[in-house]
Amino acid sequence: METREGEHLLALAWKEAAGDLLIDVVTEYTLLWEGRSYLYPVLIRNFGNGKGTLLVLYSDKREKELIEVGNKAGFFASTVFDTYFTYDGNHFIDTLNDLGWFGPKENIPSWYTGAPWS
Fold first, then answer.
1. pLDDT tens digits for range 21-46
2. Whole-angstrom distance, CA of residue 106 vs CA of residue 40
């Protein structure tokens, strides 16, 4: 599968998650860093750290660069696989719990437990 097609599926799944789980998700997020722009398929606000989590596809040829730039810019950047191309509430909730909530305490989602993967 082409990276662009995978990014589209990833964005659609996380848009669905945003509506179902009532979280703040930005698709096609452009990060400006040191005079260059970097496109990420998904930014999940309030999870991972205070700036949020940037998702990068494992199949993206720029994976290492996108992860490095995202982390240097103060985000939590994470590689994901095709298991995130289709929305699965339990799987996405497990992922978000593992990332951790960093938003305002009064906005913590009702389903959030903060339980890590292991």
1. 999 999 999 999 999 999 999 999 99
2. 28
